[in-house]
Design brief:
The protein has 229 residues and is α/β, with parallel strands linked by helices. The chain contains 8 helices and 9 strands. It has 2 domains: 104 residues, Ribosomal protein L1/L10, rRNA-binding domain (Ribulose 1,5 Bisphosphate Carboxylase/Oxygenase); 85 residues, Ribosomal protein L1/L10, domain II (Rossmann fold, 3-Layer(aba) Sandwich), CATH 3.40.50. Helix 3 links the parallel strand 3 and strand 4. Helix 2 crosses helix 8. The two termini are 37 Å apart.
């Protein structure tokens, strides 16, 4: 059942012609009528010409305007690297004992980073970490010797971009409270990342068929990408 608040929002907005993000941001923000700071989210649909099961996009984008979220970062490393992780302001730092806690279901963090050596031990917990999207991945920069950079990226504004089995990609570009310039910069960073991913995959024609923007509790609008992705 639709709430009174939702019923007051515009109807059939996804049927409207597509617009550039600069034109849509004020409209989407106007629809943020809840009491909390809603996220502004982008949904991409992979082009029908692509065999969706052959397109495997999984990467990260550093959003220049930040995400507006506080991310609790945990690090699994050798004792010799623990001081580096703590200095870089990791929220949780541990070694073998911490791995054992994770094995027993103790996962009070949103991002997990580890060193290559510890990844050998951590890889045995795929069934525990995988379903929650917490397994470190070298491609995503979360298996590394450079803990300082990885922790900084995770805390300052890093978002994961990946497609599901139906060819959908969803990513947040910030909050309603962000100024439009921040949100546009974040959006362009996402487009640049998708452009790179297009060249890394065997793509016939455009990678993206359509894109929509919405807020957490709002309605969606068609986006004009402005780039050949």
């Amino acid at each position: 059942m639709k709430s009174k608040r939702f019923k007051k929002l515009p109807e059939k907005t996804s049927d409207l012609p597509s617009e550039m993000i600069e034109r849509l941001l004020p409209v989407v923000k106007k629809n943020c009528t809840t009491k909390f700071d809603e996220s502004l989210d982008i949904s991409f649909q992979i082009n029908n010409k692509q065999k969706k099961n052959e397109i495997n996009i999984r990467t990260v984008v550093n959003l220049p305007g930040g995400t507006g979220k506080k991310v609790k970062v945990a690090v699994v490393c050798e004792d010799a690297k623990s001081s580096e992780a703590k200095t870089a302001e990791a929220d949780i730092v541990g070694g073998d004992d911490f791995i054992e806690k994770i094995k027993n279901g103790e996962m009070n963090f949103e991002k997990l980073i580890c060193t290559p050596t510890m990844m050998i031990k951590l890889s045995k917990l795929g069934k525990v970490l995988g379903p929650k999207g917490l397994m470190p991945n070298p491609k995503l920069g979360s298996v590394t010797e450079d803990l300082k950079t990885a922790i900084s990226n995770a805390k300052s504004g890093q978002a994961e971009i990946r497609n599901d089995k139906d060819g959908n990609i969803g990513v947040s570009i910030g909050k309603k409270s962000f100024n439009d310039d921040q949100l546009v910069k974040n959006f362009n960073a996402v487009l640049d990342t998708l452009e790179k991913e297009k060249s890394n995959n065997t793509v016939k024609g455009d990678l993206i068929k359509s894109a929509f923007i919405t807020s957490t509790m709002g309605v969606s609008y068609k986006l004009k990408l402005g780039k050949n992705i």
